[in-house]
Amino acid sequence: MTILLLIVLNILGILSQCFDYPNPLKKSYKIAVECPLQQKQQRFVKLDSLPQLTQPNNESMFVITFNCGIKNDVLCNKAKNAFETAGKILSTVLLINTPIQLNASFLDFCASLGKCPNGSGLVILGGATPARTIPLQDDDGLVRLYPQALVKQFQFEQHPSFGPFDIMALFNAGGASFWFDGDPPITHDQQDFLYVILHEIVHGLGFASGWGDYINDQPEALTPEISITSNDPSGRFKINGFLETAFDRYLIHIPTGKKISAFTGNLNKFQKDVDLIFQNELDFKTKFRNSPQYEIAKEMMSYSITPNALGFLPRGFNKAVESVVLETRLRPYQTGSSVSHVDFQKYNNTSDFLMKFMADHGANLDSLIATRNGNNNEGHNAVIGPNLKLVLETLGYSTPEYTNSYKPSVTITGNGNDFNPTMNVPIEPGDSSTNNGKGSSVKSGSVKTYKTDFKKNNHNIVRIY
Ligand SMILES: *[C@@H]1O[C@H](CO)[C@@H](O)[C@H](O)[C@H]1NC(C)=O
Ligand SMILES: *[C@@H]1O[C@H](CO)[C@@H](O)[C@H](O)[C@H]1NC(C)=O
Ligand SMILES: *[C@@H]1O[C@H](CO)[C@@H](O)[C@H](O)[C@H]1NC(C)=O
Ligand SMILES: *[C@@H]1O[C@H](CO)[C@@H](O)[C@H](O)[C@H]1NC(C)=O
Ligand SMILES: *[C@@H]1O[C@H](CO)[C@@H](O)[C@H](O)[C@H]1NC(C)=O
Ligand SMILES: [Zn+2]
């Protein structure tokens, strides 16, 4: 009787725990919050059956709460308009049935936040993050963290309670030289603000891996987010497990076709092998570093710094070589840039350039699209390239072209209890004459060139997270 009750409490414990990310500039900073189930708001019920009609032509489904922290009304208006335009673009490319609430701030980081340019010349441009992630049950047996913007689109009858915003965005009005629609021709060191915020909002929609080093200052071992519960004043805590993000479900190791979620299945054996309760952080770190699971975390790190090692396998594809190649060229591993972007080298010159980790400068969005797409009759909307659209559809967003998107369950049954850790997808179609098992045809020489570029460009603020 008692044991049963504990298990139920444990499951409910996972279910009602969400994470809030209040700081878009520090995406690793999360706060566990209670998010008990609540009824769906009735005003959206009627739209359920007719999703294609819920989005009037050209109307933005993004509700933007804009805070301007500078005393320049002209600039404030330009920034606000750019957010509205970004909302319209995404509302046309995606079928959004429930409005997405965006908290967007535009302020001088140096004057307002004390984050001033360094001798290095590196200026923080800004960032965006899901305001809340919500654990949902996936049909492969793992519990994953879904961005609230996406959870809303699933229109569950009952859903974990939502926070006031879906996406938090914060952009730097000082130091950075942004170009806005209507300005004189863009100069070499300017960046199109619309481009930068679209990139960030797409992260906020869920284009983000949860794999990171949560225990070492110098990253060396990667795990999904570690979910803990603690209500013990002595600092003792309990590990609930390792929680992937929705994005992570589709990660594969390209050379072998291995699903990266298999790693998570094995990592989750850690808390079964050792005591569930840890005395403090050091106790946990020590036990984890000494566990066989730590080797898995180190292997994931090695994939994250090896070109062509990690891919996102989108819907409708089942061969590893068909995946969208992710950014794994950066050495050393760059928190926030590695893995959560598309491979720069492969996609820079393609219509899927938006989600590379380094933003272009000296060209506005229209001309960037034109150089990559040639003749384009979609206007700005073409900024969401075909592979990016596929990724968003795979995560669960509907588009005018694809309405049959995947939907996880709100009822948590367990995180990997019956997970098959040996899942593989075929590496490539038929032909075995290619670089089977070797992954990369690109040697580390190109990494070097690339890093040089990155350093050279620092003062141009080309780096976006
Ligand atoms: C909607 O946008 C299209 C181009 O994207 C434009 O041709 C049309 O006039 C717009 N309609 C309205 C009602 O604004
Ligand atoms: C939007 O987020 C900022 C923090 O980035 C916060 O200070 C502000 O209160 C939020 N806006 C509203 C309307 O809650
Ligand atoms: C300034 O440099 C330090 C390390 O030298 C870094 O941690 C910090 O983020 C930098 N600040 C900005 C605004 O770039
Ligand atoms: C990335 O693509 C743009 C546009 O095609 C091009 O101008 C730029 O040189 C490319 N950068 C690299 C490093 O290839
Ligand atoms: C991308 O385009 C730039 C300039 O157009 C060119 O210098 C570069 O070699 C191209 N990169 C690839 C990988 O094709
Ligand atoms: Zn980014």
Summarize the structure.
With 465 residues, this protein is of the alpha+beta class. The chain folds into 2 domains: 18-41 and 54-208 and 353-395, no CATH class; 216-339, no CATH class. It is built from 13 helices and 19 strands.
Give structural notes.
It comes from Rhizophagus clarus. Keywords: Signal. This is Sequence orphan. This protein has 465 residues and is of the alpha+beta class. Helix content is 28%, strand content 17%. It folds into two domains: 222 residues, no CATH class; 124 residues, no CATH class. The strands form five sheets. Strands 1, 2, 7, 8, 13, 14 and 17 form a seven-stranded mixed β-sheet that branches. Strands 4-5-10-6 form a four-stranded mixed β-sheet. Helix 2 packs across helix 5. It is globular, with a radius of gyration of 22 Å. The site of one 2-acetamido-2-deoxy-beta-D-glucopyranose has 5 residues, from loops.
Key phrases:
465 residues, alpha+beta, 13 helices, binds zinc ion
Note the gap between the termini: 49 Å
Number of E-type strands: 19
Structural class: alpha+beta
Helix content: 25-40%
Task: List cofactors, ions and other ligands.
Answer: 2-acetamido-2-deoxy-beta-D-glucopyranose, zinc ion
Give Rg in angstroms: 22 Å
Spans of at least 5 consecutive residues whose pLDDT stays below 50 are: 1-13, 44-55, 430-465
Number of domains: 2
Tally of separate helices: 13
Query: What is the chains' assembly state?
Result: single chain
Specify the overall morphology.
globular
Q: Which range does the strand content fall in?
A: 15-25%
Provide the residue-averaged pLDDT: 82
- Main β sheet profile: 7 strands, mixed
